[in-house]
Every structure is written in C-alpha cells, then in structure tokens.
C-alpha cells in the first residue's frame, strides 16, 4: 500500500490473467489502495510486448525529427476539426498562471471513416487519422501499422484495467462493459524539449499541473524523467522514474465523478530540466461519448446527494479541452496585444525635423 512520500507503486498485472484467485484479489486490493491514495499506480506483467513499446517510441522520435514544415502538413488545427494530427509547441496551458507549455504532440485514434455515425454526428475526437506523406517519412506505412497495433493493444488493456476497477468498487467485474462498448480513446505522441536554462522555474512547464479529463490514462515513458505526481499529504511533487516496460496508470476526472470523489483524480505535471529530449505516449481512455456518467450505486449513503450532476463523456472531455486550449489562445492574444502596444510610438513624442 502506498504511503506519503512514495512514488506510484509498480504492480504485477499478470495476476489478472493468471487464474490464481488469491493473486488476483491482492491485485484488486492494491489497485483500490492506490485509487484511494492518489489515483496513480504503475503496471508490469501486461500483454503489450516490450518490443512493440520500443518500436512505437522509436517512431515517436522519428516523427518529431521531421522538419516543422513537414509536421505542419498534418496539423490538426488546419487540416481537420476532429483532433487528429500534429500540435505545435506552446498550444496549451493546463496550469493557470504558467506560460504556454513546452511540448509538441501528434494525435492518433481509431481509424473512423467519414461515413461512420461518430464522424457524421461530430462525436468526440472521431474521424480518420492524419499521417505524414511518404515524401516526409518514407516508411510511413510502418509508422501507421505500428501505431495502430500499439493503440488497439493499449485500449484492450484499458478495458481490462476497468474490470479490475469495477472489482475495487465491489461491482461485478464487467460492470463497465457498456461504457467500454463504442469507446473513444486518444493517443498522443509527445516530445518535450529540455527547458532552457534561463526559463523562469515557477512559470515554465512541459505540461502544467492538471488532472486528466477522461476515465483512465495509460502512459508509456521513455528513459528521460520529468513526470511528477503531487502528494497532498506532504505537499511534495514526487518524481515518477521511468521503468522499462511499465505503464503509468492514473484515474481521470470522470472516474472521480463516478465514485463521488471516493477515488482521486490527482494533480501531475512534467518539468524537463534534464538537458535531454523527453518523449512519452499517453493513451487517454474516455469511453463511449454518449454514455452518461453519474454517481455509482454504492458510492453514496442512502439519502445522500451525489456531488456531481450526470454528464456525458463527450461533454466532460470537451469542457476540459476548451479550458486548457482557451488559456493558451488568450495568453497569445494578450502577448501580441502588449507587443503591438509597445511598438507604437505615441504621437506626442514624435520629433519634426525642419
């Protein structure tokens, strides 16, 4: 069981598949303790091969090694409206009061054709993926095949984690199956340049302190550290040291709402002062976009009101996007306005030369 000052523990998830009832129960108990503590744990012993993890991380680095012009050919802001493709540095501010974040990303999800009802009805993050051209990335077919293989395996693992979470809440193991059916999940390839030595420490972030918008997140880290989890009991930020093969798993805001705050969607951030490039790959499992999340039946006492009103998955996640991207846009507009104002020469100071 985690205690104050500990980084998220590493749990052997193979117990879920083992057929050993006692080992499975211990896993359930350990996951429950983590969810009650700070909503973070790490897992090994899962079915996603280490070789595939390494291969997708290699492609992550290859993609971000492309020129800015090549990456902008698949910009999510200019080529589509369904959140697929490349995202520029400094596009988001998750922690209010900080500078735009030092990360660039590439969004991938399920391949959803434009004839699919999700696309037709403009459902959350639903549409075809955007891939670099063969001119930019000669083996783009290999990139696509690796990315989609990895994506689907991690989404399957997320469904298994939700079965464990159901058991931690004394629900039937398959309680979340309807929520998983038709689920939306979004994968982000991420690149964090090392923060400049002269950057203001209290304002510069790779990703600012935030909680995730969806249900659960599965994060693959490369060897360069930078992820930190907040420990409320001590007021410390705990480093999450990268462990080969392990996924960092954390609960999102939807799971906290579902459990009526019994479980924790905890603050975390990335600050890369290593002097090296950091790469990571989170998969954000949101769920069926039309599914209505409301207080679980056994997470409030009889007669007690739920802390949150019912909300659809889509409404909850889009609200989180609007806040974080809106902050960055406002910051840029304000900065541009200040720069324009500073560049103006007031008429009263003009000097006329005869």
TrEMBL record:
Q: Name one GO molecular function term.
A: metal ion binding
What domain of life does the native source organism fall in?
Eukaryota
Pfam families on file: 2OG-FeII_Oxy (PF03171), DIOX_N (PF14226)
Q: Where is the Fe2OG dioxygenase domain?
A: 183-287
Check the record and name the SUPFAM superfamilies matching this protein: Clavaminate synthase-like
Alphabetized, the UniProt keywords read: Iron, Metal-binding, Oxidoreductase
InterPro entries from the UniProt entry: DIOX_N, IPNS-like_FE2OG_OXY, IPNS-like_sf, Iron_ascorbate_oxido_reductase, Oxoglu/Fe-dep_dioxygenase_dom
Give any single GO term for biological process.
small molecule biosynthetic process
Q: Which family does it belong to?
A: Belongs to the iron/ascorbate-dependent oxidoreductase family.
Q: What is this protein's name? A: Clavaminate synthase-like protein
Its source organism is: Trematosphaeria pertusa
């Amino acid at each position: 069981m985690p205690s104050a000052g500990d980084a998220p523990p590493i749990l052997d998830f193979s117990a879920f598949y083992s057929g050993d009832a006692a080992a499975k129960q211990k896993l359930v108990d350990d996951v429950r303790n983590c969810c009650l503590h700070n909503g973070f744990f790490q897992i090994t012993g899962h079915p996603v091969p280490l070789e595939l993890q390494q291969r997708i991380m290699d492609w992550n680095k290859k993609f971000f090694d492309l020129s800015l012009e090549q990456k902008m050919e698949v910009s999510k802001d200019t080529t589509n409206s369904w959140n697929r493709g490349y995202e520029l540095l400094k596009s988001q501010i998750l922690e209010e009061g900080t500078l735009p974040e030092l990360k660039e990303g590439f969004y991938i999800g399920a391949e959803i054709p434009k004839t699919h009802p999700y696309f037709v009805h403009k459902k959350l993050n639903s549409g075809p993926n955007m891939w670099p051209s063969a001119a930019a990335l000669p083996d783009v077919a290999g990139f696509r095949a690796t990315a989609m293989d990895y994506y689907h395996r991690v989404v399957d693992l997320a469904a298994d984690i939700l079965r464990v979470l159901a058991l931690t809440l004394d629900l039937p193991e398959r309680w979340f199956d309807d929520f998983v059916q038709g689920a939306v999940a979004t994968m982000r390839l991420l690149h964090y340049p090392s923060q400049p030595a002269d950057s203001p420490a209290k304002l510069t972030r790779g990703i600012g302190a935030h909680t995730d918008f969806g249900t659960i997140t599965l994060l693959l880290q490369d060897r360069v550290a930078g992820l930190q989890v907040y420990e409320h009991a001590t007021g410390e930020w705990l480093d999450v040291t990268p462990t080969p093969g392990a996924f960092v798993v954390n609960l999102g805001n939807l799971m906290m709402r579902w459990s009526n705050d019994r479980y924790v969607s905890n603050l975390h951030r990335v600050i890369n002062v290593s002097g090296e490039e950091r790469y990571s790959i989170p998969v954000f499992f949101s769920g069926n976009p039309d599914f209505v999340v409301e207080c679980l039946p056994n997470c409030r006492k009889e007669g007690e009101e739920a802390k949150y009103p019912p909300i659809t998955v889509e409404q909850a996640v889009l609200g989180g996007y609007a806040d974080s991207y809106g902050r960055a846009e406002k910051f840029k507009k304000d900065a541009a306005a200040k720069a324009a104002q500073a560049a103006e020469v007031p008429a009263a100071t003009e000097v006329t030369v005869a």
